[in-house]
Amino acid sequence: MIELRNVSKAYMTPGGLNHVLSDLSVEFPTGDSIGILGRNGAGKSTLLRIISGVEQPDFGRINRQGRVSWPIGFSGGFNGSLSGEENCRFVARIYGEDVDRVVGFAHEFSEIGHYFHMPVRTYSSGMRARLAFGLSMAIDFSVYLVDEVTAVGDKPFQRKCREAFAKCQERSSVIMVSHNMNTIRQYCKKCALLAGGVLQLFSSVDEAAEAYNARLDAGVAA
To answer: What is the pLDDT of residue 74?
Structure first.
């Protein structure tokens, strides 16, 4: 279970303060896989980072039960001076995992060859994403946070990611951000709409999609 209580987050923009989350209180029940819809800039990725603990809210608190992943594909936590292998060893120790197993899995899964032993600062953005996804799949989480899971790498690698992720979902739940309704329908039974700093939960993906499309048709801002 993940619970947000009175969570707020705002960023300063040229046009003034942008409140992407406004006094948000919501509960994500254990075992439910939930998709999150919203326009660009609505705060979906910010919400995932706050749930994971990668980013802190301006106000409010987050209660987490079980082990919650970082946003899959997020590579901002890598130390650029360390190699991919060294970063994986560091993360494995933090989570109390078998270090050699995690390193071996991430190396094989990421398919970045000898770059795995080179500093992460020498990686392309695609290589960082591959390593981050491979490392995510190497560790068991109760809840996986996913930001566009199918967007990593080329088509063969994307297929590999989807297959690995499907196995993880057999024992874990998912909170997923995606612009692709088919992707959300594939992985999630419920859905939420983030708009105007407010997150509204729906009992089905179709209900959320209907509300989302209605906002688009009406030209309502994020």
So the answer is: 65
Contacts with 214 (C-beta within 8 Å, 6 or more apart), sequence order = none
| DSSP β-ladder status, 68-72 and 143-147 | parallel
114: exposed, middle or buried (Cβ count in 10 Å: 0-12, 13-18, 19+): exposed
Helix axes 155-169 and 125-138, enclosed angle (nearest 10) = 20
Question: Among candidates 183, 211, 176, which has minimal Cα distance to 34?
Answer: 176
Kindly give the interhelix angle for 99-110 and 84-94, rounded to the nearest 10 degrees: 140
CA gap 164, 111 in Å, rounded:
14
Mean pLDDT of the chain: 88
Matching residue, tokens 């105007």: 196
Query: Distance between CA atoms of 57 and 25, rounded to whole angstroms?
Result: 12
- For residue 121, what pLDDT is reported? 95
Six token digits for residue 163: 């297959």
What does the pLDDT read at residue 54? 87
Using only C-alpha atoms, the chain has a radius of gyration, in whole angstroms, of 18
pLDDT digits (tens, 9 = 90+) for 172-181: 999 998 877 8
| Cβ contact 87:79 at 8 Å | yes
The overall pTM is greater than 0.70 = yes
Pairing of strands 68-72, 16-28: unpaired
**Length reported for the chain:** 222
- Three-state SS at 59: strand
pLDDT for 147-159, tens place per residue? 865 556 678 888 8
